[in-house]
Amino acid sequence: MTVSSATRATVVATPRGRRRRSSFTAYSWSSLLYVAPALLFFGVFVIYPICISVQTSFYEYDGLTVATPVGAANYVAVFTDPALREALLHSLVLLFFYAVLPVVIGLGLAGLLSRIRIYGLTFFRAVLFIPQVLSSVVVAVAWRGILASDGPLNSVMQAVGLGSFATSWLGDFDTALPAVGGIGTWVQYGLCMVLFLGGIVGIDRSLYEAARLDGAGAIREFRAITLPALRPQISIALILCITFALRNFDIIWNTTRGGPGTSTAVPSVYIYQDAFQNRALGQASAMAVVLTLLILVIVGIVQFALRERSDVPRAARRSGGVR
Amino acid sequence: MRIPTRSTPVRRLALAGLVGVTVVALAGCAAPGAGGGSDAAEQEDIAEQVTADQVADLGDITLTMWADQAEEPLMDLLVPAYEEAYPNVTVDITYKSFDDLIATVVNAANSANAPDLFQGNIGYAVDGALVKAGLVRPLDDVADVYGWNEGTGASTLAPSKWNDDATTFGDGTLYGMSPISEVQGIYYNTSKLEALGLDAPASIDDLEAALPVAAASGETPIMLGNADQYAGTHIFSDIAATTQDPADIRAWIGGDPDQSFVTDGNVEAAETMAEWADAGYFGDGYDGLGNEDAIARFADGDGVFFVGGSWNGASLNAAEFGFGALASGGVGATASPWHISSSSENAIASIAFLEMLHSPETGQWILDTGRLPVITDGVTAGDELQQQTLDALTATIDAGTQVGYYDWTTTDMLTVMGGGLQEVMAGRSSADDFVETVQAAWADGHGSE
């Protein structure tokens, strides 16, 4: 989706936008020609594989011999497997670490970076964004070292007298899930921050001046102007982070493989195992379809909850003017 | 920015298109797996040894292969020798990491341009799938002609033999051959053992007596990296092979329906693991340490013992470490077997390659490149550690206690058993629950075949 054109659509007065859309419908068939190459690509490499997955989910299939149709049995298995229920629960815990925390940290950092004049701001912004750029395998290997029982984290803890809390973070049944979650927070907060910084740049400076004239402090300013104006960015950040959290595989696979025991197993670990190790492609497809629907539902709820209810600048001005 | 509202005409059109494409795609497709894939070429049994003239009659050909990355040093020696003996053949090998190989080789074998020769992996996940789908050439004629069924390597062919439905292995038609063997056992740090006044352990009892001594001195008794979940199962199998008849374990691994994992011996072995973990014999944080990291630390002088196998030997300096088998005769297995594609047009050239792999000369090269050959006759070890490993291997093969690996049993056994053992060692589940869970996964895997 192109952010810039959508932004422009908001600026353009609604009636004109409507007229433009209706004329678009009239010419839609010739317009379709323009998007045909992209649509073809999308169809072959996205839609078609999705359809195959859906179809495969109704079969028992080893990837080699002819599949046998099994009706909804694979789906029944998805909903009755206690291991999968446990995995879903782990995913919900990870939602907090992979989505909620990064958004909160991102908001805090964006608020700070946009207020304080720092020399080399671009540099800091780039550095804080690095986790997002690194390959997740690299991230996983690095953190495996950091979180090891004789790793830097425990050394620091021992140095400051917290040695009794030091443990093998990824190897302990109680700490493995939060530890893996922490890695996700580290990966995602940079993306959130950059999104929010971009949003803050777009806020009319005069709103802040007005608020300051009215005697608003930093926190009040943030709550009354920045936060409401960032609603669309928060929505996008949450959608990206939630999707990342629920389909997260590479970080977990490269740090704990779902262990110790099954304490960090998430649905995508089971999907991988069924598809590539157990050769149970039908079962894996059913799980993947359910996971996709779950992601769509949760993302839909977030989108609905954070939809724009009124014109942002006016709302900001109104609350900014209180006092 | 504004997220556009959902029900504009464009969106509806797109949605309708999407639904349409879906319906067409679903209706137009037959069941997955119907059609496509590779076509089996005409495969003739050989009655006599393949000659260079026969291979020369094939004209200028390229033999394509897929192999484990670990085979590269050996192949660098073998391939030039092969190309010299059969000058009209060019060998083209694609190397993959072991994980990549076993994840992709079955699909590659099923593709229209399958490699002529490739390595699979013993057990249901790879070899079982290959045999069931008829993707690999039976090798009984080759074994007969070249006498593979006699001599030291004969028993190591068993895990590549499958029954007609590909439901059990260990006996039946031969489909693969591995020139490389592995033996499990224990590595010890020679100078630390001396400092502690201990002898090299020759049995589990010896080890059990040595562990508290090592722990009391402040050393980590056994260096274990169990984050990948499999290192623990190696220790378990070493113990389990002494608490019951190894032949029963081998039968269970091969899929014998009369066998069960719920045995007193397995419960005892799991309880021993839990006791050792509880006593701190594996140190702290072993579940957070990768196996590769653990062997690196052990090589650096951390820990008194390391329970692993011959594949770890290459990481260790022969002057500082020793090796011994714990079970009587030791526990071991053969490495990934080589298969000839059933769609290969050049089966004769492939057979010539396999025979060269199986020769005593290659056996020496295998030892020289840090592995163990199945043909141990006439090979000489380069150092003391290699000799100890080779002795353990010959003892294993002689005693017939090469039980194989538990994860051959079902495709998910590595996870079930590895994860379950982690729970037992952490005191979160009982040894009884563990053996029941493993047996349930085994029954599940074999019932659905």
From TrEMBL, chain A:
Judging by the UniProt lineage, the source's domain of life is Bacteria
Could you tell me where this protein is found in the cell? Cell membrane
Key words of the record: Cell membrane, Membrane, Transmembrane, Transmembrane helix, Transport
Q: How does it sit in the membrane?
A: Multi-pass membrane protein
Could you tell me the Gene Ontology terms of the biological process aspect for this record? transmembrane transport
Q: Where is the ABC transmembrane type-1 domain?
A: 88-302
> GO CC terms on record?
plasma membrane
Question: Per its UniProt record, what PROSITE patterns does this chain match?
Answer: ABC_TM1
One of the Pfam families matching this protein, by short name: BPD_transp_1
Membrane-traversing stretches: 26-50, 92-114, 126-146, 186-203, 224-246, 284-306
Q: Which family does it belong to?
A: Belongs to the binding-protein-dependent transport system permease family.
The protein's name in its UniProt record: Sugar ABC transporter permease
Automatic annotation (TrEMBL), chain B:
Stored SUPFAM superfamilies: Periplasmic binding protein-like II
| A Pfam family this chain is assigned to | SBP_bac_8
> Is Signal tagged as a keyword?
yes
Q: Which UniProt keywords apply?
A: Signal
Q: Which residues form a coiled coil?
A: none
Q: Which domain of life is it from?
A: Bacteria
**In its UniProt entry, what is this protein called?**
Extracellular solute-binding protein
Taxonomy-wise, where does this protein's organism fall, top ranks first?
A: Bacteria, Bacillati, Actinomycetota, Actinomycetes, Micrococcales
